[in-house]
Amino acid sequence: MKYETNPPDAASLMMSARSFGNYDLPGALADLIDNSIKAGAREVTLTCRFNDGDSEIRIRDDGHGLSGQELRDAMRPASSNPLANRSPDDLGRFGWGMKSASFSQCTRLTVISRRDGELTGCVWDLSDVDAWRMGVLDANEIAGLASPELLAKDGVEVIWADCDRLLENGSVTQREFNALIVYAGNRLALIFHRYLSGEVRGRKLTLRLNNRKIEPLDPYYRDHEATQQLEAEPLEIGGRNIDIQPFILPHYSKLLPNQHEQLGGEEGFLRNQGFYVYRNHRLIISGTWFRLARHGELSQLARVRVDIPNALDHIWKITIDKSDAQLPAVLRNRLRQIVEGLRCRSARVFRSRGGRLDRVGTTSVWSRYARGGEVRYAINREHPVIEALLESGDDEQKQAASAALKVIEQAFPVAAFTQDVAGEPEAIHQTLTDPTVFKADLNAALPMLLMQAGGDFAALAALLRVTEPWCEAWGATEAVLKEKGWLNA
């Protein structure tokens, strides 16, 4: 057998690199921030300018920078072996991160580094990479491109120009660009929240986006007194530990509206329940049950933090963009058990907010009557909404409303309910889990409740404080009253 070299075509491979992974803007920025963390950076500054459609993105850090040769090595495609042993705190893997992340957004990548006062700059321009030709900047070109901060202090500055994919070939407007930048900031606040909060020992990071400091977004809201941090459990795989830490988030009645919205994210609590997988404290996957369970209403408060080391990348099959992984088969059974118990705990938070008949001083929707060994449940006619319903309209309408309540009571499915309670009580779901629906229902009931309170806002608030279901979610109820200007008016 004889051998001959058969290298890839430079332009074809580099253009293909634009589609490595599944990068969006925050994912691409996160890949570069990984490099900054590895370089010991304490602060990373992101500058995103629309420039009338000629956008430019800059990512600058205050890390130790790169020497001229190190920069050339870093600019080389596939600059590291994914199977090679790496430092335990290394956030990279394939040696494609900076290049593929950048080219997913732009066609011209410039990297300028200052190390020990020495400046070096290199450029990949996808319109001119024949024969792997990479641009090397001279001193005057560096002085004209680099920010004053980099010229004065060691670090690295990455510049994206000709951002065709970011701007979708010019179809993105200034307003849409601004919304994209806000979204990227929110995602980075989540992805790096453990670094931003100083949780990673010796690695506290400051991120600034267009001169605004990004605050950490803790998906478990551990600072809240109502968050339940359950017992942690280490699992061993491949001779390495994986740390499992379950949480139950606070019920929406315990949160302010802005807190609930922030924790729920753009897709809401229902889609954000499940596992949150971290690789070296950096979030790579959020809101999945790995097909161990379905996303359900009663489990929406359950979140599980999973910490994996980079030594297990091959087992978890981490993707090049570090946005996805596959659950190793050896962990499925144990994690399924953890999920089942956690979903029950989450459901209990909602069930504890349901109607109760044993609370003194509270007006319940249902009443319980026991006499002669018999028990009967009836709708409470003194509940403000029921009372208002029975008093509205003419005599015929009042009689129809009363008859409707009696039909509901007489048709209560006793046998089915008894069977469900005896067989699978955890599956019973009668409690409202959506704060948006809760708010809408309250707004619909407020006019008649205000009439019941004689038009007095203070009396209305006092009525709601002792009336189901609003007293059970007073935080959400109070927020609606404040929004209307009816509280303490």
Describe the structure.
- The chain is α+β, with helices and mostly antiparallel strands and 489 residues long.
- The chain contains 18 helices and 16 strands.
- The chain has helices at residues 10-16, 25-38, 68-75, 97-103, 139-145, 148-152, 174-191, 193-196, 257-264, 268-271, 313-316, 329-351, 384-391, 395-410, 414-423, 435-452, 457-465, 474-484, and strands spanning 43-49, 56-61, 108-115, 118-125, 135-136, 155-161, 206-209, 212-213, 228-229, 233-237, 240-248, 274-279, 282-288, 302-308, 366-371, 374-379.
- A hairpin with a 2-residue loop joins β3 and β4.
- It is elongated, with a radius of gyration of 29 Å.
- The chain starts with 9 loop residues before the first helix and ends in a 5-residue tail after the last helix.
- Mean pLDDT is 85; it is low at 90-94.
Strand order of the largest sheet: 5-4-3-6-2-1-7-8
What percent of residues are in strands? Answer: 15-25%
Largest sheet report? 8 strands, mixed
Give the radius of gyration: 29 Å
How would you sum up this structure in a few lines?
The protein has helices at 10-16, 25-38, 68-75, 97-103, 139-145, 148-152, 174-191, 193-196, 257-264, 268-271, 313-316, 329-351, 384-391, 395-410, 414-423, 435-452, 457-465, 474-484, and strands at 43-49, 56-61, 108-115, 118-125, 135-136, 155-161, 206-209, 212-213, 228-229, 233-237, 240-248, 274-279, 282-288, 302-308, 366-371, 374-379.
Secondary structure elements and their pairing?
Layout: H1 10-16, H2 25-38, E1 43-49, E2 56-61, H3 68-75, H4 97-103, E3 108-115, E4 118-125, E5 135-136, H5 139-145, H6 148-152, E6 155-161, H7 174-191, H8 193-196, E7 206-209, E8 212-213, E9 228-229, E10 233-237, E11 240-248, H9 257-264, H10 268-271, E12 274-279, E13 282-288, E14 302-308, H11 313-316, H12 329-351, E15 366-371, E16 374-379, H13 384-391, H14 395-410, H15 414-423, H16 435-452, H17 457-465, H18 474-484
Parallel strand pairs: 1-7, 12-14
Antiparallel strand pairs: 1-2, 2-6, 3-4, 3-6, 4-5, 7-8, 9-11, 10-11, 11-14, 12-13, 15-16
Helix pairs in contact: 2-4, 2-7
